[in-house]
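$ run holo --ligand "zinc ion" --emit tokens
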Amino acid sequence: MTNKTDRIIIFDTTLRDGEQCPGATLNIDEKLVIAKQLARLGVDIIEAGFAFASPGDFEAVSKIAKIVGTENGPVICSLARAIKADIEAAAEALKPAVNARIHTFISTSDIHLEYQLRKSRAEVLAIAEEMVAYAKSFMTDVEFSPMDAARSDPEFLYQVLERAIAAGATTVNIPDTVGYTTPSEFGAIIKGIIENVPNIDQAIISVHGHNDLGLAVANFLEAVKNGARQLECTINGIGERAGNASLEELVMALHVRRQYFNPYLGRPEESQEPLTNIDTRQIYKTSRLVSNLTGMLVQPNKAIVGANAFAHESGIHQDGVLKNKLTYEIMDAQLIGLTDNQIVLGKHSGRNAFRTRLKELGFELSDTELNKAFVRFKEVADKKKDISDWDLEAIVNDEIQQAPDLFRVELVQVSCGSNARPTATVTLRTPDGEELTDAAIGTGPVDAVYKAINRVVNVPNELIEFSVQSVTGGIDAIGEVTIRLRYESKVFSGHAANTDIIVASAQAYVNALNRLYSALQRQEKPEEVSAQKV
Ligand code: KIV
Ligand code: ZN
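-- output --
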């Protein structure tokens, strides 16, 4: 093994580090849906979770290992602290995967050693070596991370890495855990490692970084120039605090500027060979799926996948783009899977046309999912004349969303207007199958609906985010509602799409309440083990 691969390895941690951001909690089926899409996107490694953290995390890793970790599929990875029980849980959960990796870590910065681990450098050195060797006894592919590497004493970092590689680590990952470094500093750290770790040629150098100063992507690109060959990133850059380095930004930077990066990977400057294995046309769809399922909205001006990323507002820009796209566009929107094919289906389209278009869009639905989505499509087509690809995506994402089906919205009725007090009546089907109806007055129709729902569900919570976005233009557009609510210190998200935004608002809210309700039910189970998230 050598760190001189001639391409960049994409390690996706959306399901592990990405899922750690407040409210992004996904259930097992949702994680599986995302993992399948990540495989279609072409990521090399999926960090599917932290198997020891809870039985739910264990099951998610194991299910993804079984279903997505096939012969030609990505490597499936589980995180594990440098602790035997963690490593054993990771190895067990990963058993069904054809290609599996254990990613074990321990902090190396003095500040972590003194205040968090309360261990000496000598102890950390011994633990790192011993636990990498232990992970190696289960599988050949082992990654080691010295947590907070970017703030660690370089000499100590070199020693730890050397010992970890000698013990069998095939990838050494350099985390900027707190998002502190600048690009030239991060590049220098990688250069220092290559120059000072004698056996570094036996491992791939990986980088992991958080975006506290908005520098994660820039840091990674500098790391690539200095010899890093694996990038740990997440879809839409979600993750702890300000998030992780964003996969779509890294991949498109390496794609659009490949002539700049080629020489750093030992390729001729003019080579057109992609630098990663990513199918860039799957980027937009993956971004929407992750945003819908996690409830983490993508800001409109977000690079690559934001709603405005390819929009030209100024007259001068519009004029230029009409004459020649290259005047103001450095990449074609089709490259990330945005199609010009706006109007595709309508009320008279049959199941076959529906299935075919979904297939073209890359959705592989089971018969049950397809049937459910087709019923929704017909309902929408009754209200909306032309159904675009974006509408189809909203319908399918909504249908395959796997929030636990505990409470269900049966009826929503509102009365409001300039001279009326906003009043709502809702009927919900409870988990026991009972239909309960209640009504409330609010400051507006959505507030009235939420108050009526709260009277039925009766779990105190605070609404902290409410957003409506229209999927396409036009008065009959589908509205997507994303909400986040807080219960004690936990945040839960909900998402729904409907041509009626009041109905979508009710469904999104019930969706989030269902997640909260099922978390409360799980808390009551004594066997639930909870490990600290990292
Ligand atoms: O940010 C970090 O340091 C991590 C490690 C577990 C790799 O997430
Ligand atoms: Zn991290």
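-- notes --
The first strand starts at residue 9 and ends at 12.
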